[in-house]
Amino acid sequence: MAKTAEDNFRIEVWDREGQALAETISRSPDSTVSQAAWQAAIRRRPGMLLIHYNSRHVMEKILTPGEVKIPPQAIIDGSVHAGLDVALGDLREWHVLRAWCRSCSHHAMVKPVWLIKRYGTGALFSSVERALFCTSCDRGGPVRLEIHKLPRN
């Protein structure tokens, strides 16, 4: 298989011991994009070994601070994206959120602006979901946030 420019920069996530590859979190032909992905990976993959490559050359290697947590999942337009923990600041004006109560299945639309005002742009979905509670059954969590796009006119 021929190498492409897309193979130039990549970020791999390994377990703490460096024995098992968990995922390739980013591939990019652009160094600047890859550096931004590297900084985001450090924040979003606590307790994991990250390796930043330029082709076969290891540019950076770090064991991220923090404890390994359950891999996050984000639901975007009905599709589950394992390993993706979205920050509220990553949302755009065309995104809407739906909160689902896992206890009673009640659901409601939530405006991202309200969550950003309360928790900040850097808050991750995994932490916001734990802080929310259902207004129907008044039980704290577990609430699941889903990202949907506003319909086009």
Largest sheet: 5 strands, mixed
Count of helix runs: 3
**How are the strands ordered across the major sheet?**
6-5-9-7-8
Rg from Cα: 18 Å
Count of beta strands: 9
Helix content: 10-25%
- What's the average pLDDT? 81
Distance linking N and C termini:
43 Å
Residue stretches low in confidence (pLDDT < 50, at least 5 long) are: none
Structural commentary:
This protein is 19% helix and 35% strand. It contains three helices and nine strands, in the order ββαββββββααβ. A five-stranded mixed β-sheet has the order 6-5-9-7-8. Strands 2-1-3-4 form a four-stranded antiparallel β-sheet, with helices on one face. Strand 1 (9-14) and strand 2 (21-28) form a beta hairpin. The chain is globular and about 55 Å long.
What are the SSEs and their pairings?
Layout: E1 9-14, E2 21-28, H1 31-44, E3 49-54, E4 57-63, E5 73-76, E6 79-82, E7 95-101, E8 107-110, H2 112-119, H3 125-131, E9 143-149
Parallel strand pairs: 5-9
Antiparallel strand pairs: 1-2, 1-3, 3-4, 5-6, 7-8, 7-9
In short:
With 153 residues, this protein is α+β, with helices and mostly antiparallel strands. It has three helices and nine strands.
Overview features:
alpha+beta; five-stranded mixed β-sheet; 35% strand; globular
